Amino acid sequence: MARCRHPTAILKSLGTPHITAERTIIEGVVHEAANHSVEQLAQEENEMLVGLPGLRTRHEGTGPGGPRLRD
After folding, report:
1. Does pLDDT of 62 surpass 90?
2. Which single residue of 10, 24, 48, 67 has CA 20 to 30 Å from 37?
């Protein structure tokens, strides 16, 4: 019967990947941008920014008890 190694030993043998926060951010941005042009990304950003005041108004009065949406 073959001996099984403890899972922790297996993980330690794999080593630690060197991933920096900067690399993680870059990979996330590349993933989100995917096949969009700079113009498309800028338009989407603008639409989100224009919508923020309305979202803030809808969630006015948000506190520790959670959001209270206005009708």
Report:
1. no
2. 24
